[in-house]
Amino acid sequence: MQFRFSLLAAFAAVAFCALPARALDRPEITFPVFQFPADRIPRVDGDGADWDIVPESYVVGSKELVDGSTKPRQHDPKNLDVRVRVGWVKGLNRLYFLYEAYDDYWDFSQPGLHNDTFELIVDGDASGGVLVDSSQKSVWRPEIVGERRMTPDGRISPAQEKWAIHGVHAQNYHIFTPAVDKDWALAWGSATWTKELPWANAATKFDFKPGEPGKLTLEFWITPFDYAGPEGPERAVESLLYENKIIGLGWIIIDYDNAESGGRNNGFWMLGRQRSMFGDASGLPAFRLMPQEPFLREKRIDAQWSFKLVDIDRRVVAFKDESVGEVTAWHWDFGDGQTSTEQHPLHAYEKPGNYVVILDIEGPAGKSRHSKVWDVQMR
Asked: What start-end ranges are recorded for coiled-coil regions in this protein (predicted)?
């Protein structure tokens, strides 16, 4: 059994790492992700009012999409028109979405995959690479996966291959718009648990019936993962989100206009420019997790800081300034009688104890102070 899992691990490593990393798609543009203040996190209820603070510059509209169908169509807003906003909150590994769409024919009467769909693909560390198994022939081509990977390894079954690769290092969600009498989304891959609380949540508002026109509002959040395995969340690794981080993110609007059309759709509207983006994270556009907009800051200068214990035996602590605004001077009081004027000091405590640490800063906008009470503890 141990040999079997070692073989699978080696297979996954080759599949993900054998090829040199490729740049994300659409190098001419980096889309912004709006940072919500911690006290204005969107409530997922299908009401877009919480997103009124998001500037128009963050909206990704239909004009950014191209039709990846066999016979591409020109966009007609009278047929389908969408607006997407993406947000994040500093300190949470979540991506928030507001999807607003008008469609002249909403197709959602069937219980299966045939459903108007907002297909979302996320690569939380922008590492790129294939995220689907080799049954997806449009992705598994030599120019994408490499010549070596095109030859199957007879020791690994297709089912084992899918288990090891599909949706593990980047995730694909088929979000049904709307979902009626079914789950809100298909987490397409081996880790289907990622669409459930506490890793995701969604709410939709609409007032139309199948086949009718109308507007839909979908509000949801997901957790991106660097590793999301089929065994469950106990071994999962969330993608760390922080200011100015670049992530791979894209979507495809699959528009059906006939409940009896089978698998044929009326549009495959992609944010990326490669149809393979649904299964190749290297084909995703780039998004940047933006700092908080200045108009939302209550203070023009605000002292903030964090710390890490570098050496517990020598009681060495690394302090990091995370202040907001223009800062020209720093003064650290480590609580043991010692101080520093460095921005990011390294300090060694001589004795065990609990310490009150204070950071004072100055800048053109004035002064600010922030203390932490007994967070810094030495043994």
From this structure: none
Strand partners, 248: 123, 286
d(CA 268, CA 313) in angstroms, rounded, equals 58
| 65-68 contacts, C-beta under 8 A, 24 or more apart | 65/253, 65/269, 65/270, 65/271, 66/269, 66/270, 66/273, 67/267, 67/268, 67/269, 67/270, 68/252, 68/268, 68/269, 68/270, 68/275
Residue 193 near residue 233 (C-beta atoms within 8 A): yes
Give the separation between CA 153 and CA 258, rounded to whole angstroms: 41
DSSP 34: E
pTM over 0.85: yes
The pLDDT of 18-43, averaged and rounded, is 85
Q: Which domains does the chain have, with CATH numbers?
A: 2-289 (2.60.40.1190), 297-378 (2.60.40.10)
d(CA 235, CA 266): 40
